N-acetyltransferase domain-containing protein
Amino acid sequence: MDFKFNVNRLLPRKINKVTHTLIPEDFRGDRREYNESQRQISRILDDMGEASAMAQGLSKPITSALKLRDTDHIVYLLVDSAGNEGLGSVVGLLKTGSKNLFMFDEAGAYFQLQPRCILDFYVHESKQRMGFGKDLYEFMLAVSIYLYLHL
């Protein structure tokens, strides 16, 4: 998905992590750049969330900037740095977060878990079946395993 701003400057890595702050993990800049980065990340999340909902046949998006605020959710954004005439384009999105799940044990008693789950997963239609989704998924797994082993 192409945007009018320089995606490569905003999201310098192939896969970039964004949390409730709506700022890329590697952000370095002043207050004005911080606000502009939040605005641009919000645009990316809203547009990619809409595209994901449409692709899944949902009536409303699962992912948006507003829905990311005040959560423990993490969004990984995959960038094609050569896209959009060198400005970069966002190819995919993978959102993870805790989810309340109710499970039953062998005796039939229920209990509650809050596992980390994939909440949204989307690769732009023009980039599907090229391994981009696999790259996103494997990156998320590697980060999750690393955090699990180092906590």
